[in-house]
Amino acid sequence: MTDIDTAALKENFAAVAAHGGDEVALYFYSYLFLRYPETRDMFPPGMTKQRDRLVGALVRIVTDVDNAGQLVPYLEDLGRDHRKFGTLTAHYPAVGEALLATLRHFSGAGWTDKLGADWAAAYRIVAGAMSGAAEKVAASEPAFWDAEILDVDHRTFDIAVLTVRTQTPVPYLAGQSLAVEPSLARPREWRFFTPANAPGGVDIELHARLIPGGPVSTALVRVCQRGDRLRLGPPFGRMTLQPASDRPLLMVAGSTGLAPMKAMIAELAGTGRRRTHLFFGARSVREAYDRDALAALDNRYGWLSVVTAISDDTRWNGPQGLIGEVAADQGDWSDHDVFVCGSPAMVEASVKRLLADGVLEEQIKFEEFGEA
Ligand SMILES: Cc1cc2nc3c(=O)[nH]c(=O)nc-3n(C[C@H](O)[C@H](O)[C@H](O)COP(=O)(O)OP(=O)(O)OC[C@H]3O[C@@H](n4cnc5c(N)ncnc54)[C@H](O)[C@@H]3O)c2cc1C
Ligand code: HEM
Asked: Mean pLDDT over residues 254-282, rounded?
């Protein structure tokens, strides 16, 4: 691995990406689908938007191959997760070939044999980690779980809490997420959503917030109904409780970033309880969509305290402000295990403030509800 010049790979891709627009992604997919038509059905029917979802991610990951040691757990998750698309080990060389053909095409005279060999070697390492992990679980775990929607509770026009039922329990850990495909409304469009209840049963509670123009969140919040079918992918993510730690917990959640915190609180209630402070933030009173459930949890568990803060609505009598700031102002969290979840902007601001206040990086786990 050491003789792969990853700086040259990054430089090469920057030159290729300068061709702009989605020309590069278009070439990649045309190559892949023409030569390997069997791969077409794994992708969404209409691929005009977000065409570079895979290509951009693919290149970022492959050019980070000198971090492969640290990346391995992520690549293994990603590989297992790809089984839900129908991806098999045999498909990896096809994607590698399409990637190299695309890079070569747009590099023109800048292409060298050494670049070609380095891209191929880097791709092989990443593809090997992904497909190896997928093969390992293939005999024991389905590629996805079929689920039926039992209930859609519209808390506001843009937030819904869905209860879905699978035939067998999905083996997630509290805090982990599952890719969701609204099979009828949005076939082959998968986005991550996070169970808000403890694992072990066949019913899963999902909190979905509508992102304007977003196909999957719109389907879940506005289109899906009781009786509709979803597919759920395998568990994904590292924001989980560390059973070995007995430190108190700080949880900072923005909007539906509350879901993983509720799952972890439910887990704590059933196993080892730890002093836990949950700070929940929303922009407006309307968006504080789970207030009744939070009040009930606060009353029920002596080891839990819940604070709700609102950032942009003066009708609120409680704490006002961005949730990361409100949490940081209300305590010294330097001896806590910390979880942060919400939009990318909320997570970034909260983590920055907590680090500045002396919480160590290794004490903080976070999940951003942007793109995977
Ligand atoms: C690990 C993980 C877990 C997640 N869990 C949940 C969950 O429990 N509940 C939930 O509501 N969402 C969750 N999300 C976000 C969700 O997966 C989708 O990204 C979101 O629903 C938008 O999907 P879409 O198809 O509607 O829109 P897309 O077409 O995917 O996105 C449309 C545009 O909106 C942007 N965007 C996406 N999400 C956000 C956001 N949160 N804030 C601002 N801009 C955004 C995208 O970058 C894109 O430009 C999670 C994301 C990840 C990565
Ligand atoms: C080293 C190899 C690969 C890497 C690093 C990689 C990485 C990724 C990433 C990060 C995403 C976006 C995450 C997501 O939407 O879930 C993605 C999406 C996807 N990948 Fe891969 N992938 C690889 C190989 C493959 C192969 C071999 C196939 C099958 C032919 C494949 C099919 C898909 C599909 C269908 C999507 C969803 C695209 C969409 O929703 O528009 N990938 N990949």
From this structure: 95
User: Is it the case that residue 321 has pLDDT exceeding 70?
Assistant: yes
Q: Which of 54, 97, 119, 192 to mutate to test the pocket of ligand 2 (most atoms within 8 A of CB)?
A: 54
> Is the model's pLDDT at 1 over the cut of 60?
no
47 vs 33: which has the higher pLDDT: 33
Q: How many CB atoms lie within 10 A of CB 88?
A: 15
Check whether residue 168 and residue 110 sit in a common domain.
no
How many CA atoms, within 13 angstroms, populate the side-chain half-sphere of residue 251?
A: 27
For 132-157, the pLDDT digits (tens) are 999 999 999 999 999 999 999 999 99
In short, whether 137's Cβ falls inside 6 Å of ligand 2 is no
Which pLDDT score is estimated for 3? 87
Question: In this predicted structure, what is the pLDDT of residue 293?
Answer: 97
On whether residue 319 sits in a domain, the answer given is yes
Residue 134 is part of a domain; what is its CATH number? 1.10.490.10
C-alpha 54 to ligand 2 mean position (Å):
5
pTM for this entry: 0.92
pLDDT beyond 60 at 2: no
Ligand 1 centre and the CA of 256: distance in Å? Answer: 10
Alpha-carbon dihedral of residues 239, 241, 245, 248, nearest 10 degrees?
90
150 and 133 within one domain: no
CA distances from 124 to 33, 132, 226 (A): 21, 11, 44
What's the CATH code of the domain at 268? 3.40.50.80
Ligand 2 neighbourhood includes 75 CB (under 6 angstroms) = no
Distance of CA 350 to the CA centre of its chain: 18
Ligand 2 atom nearest to CA at 95: 27
If asked whether residues 217 and 183 sit together in one domain, one would say yes
Is there a single domain that holds both residue 160 and residue 204? yes
Q: Which residue range is the domain that position 363 belongs to?
A: 249-368
How do 229-236 and 191-193 pair as beta strands?
unpaired
Q: Does 29 contact ligand 2 (Cβ within 6 A)?
A: no
Cα angle 287-291-293, degrees, rounded to a multiple of 5:
135
Which of 236, 266, 283 lies at the terminal end of a domain, its last residue?
Answer: 236
Residues 37 and 156 in one domain: no
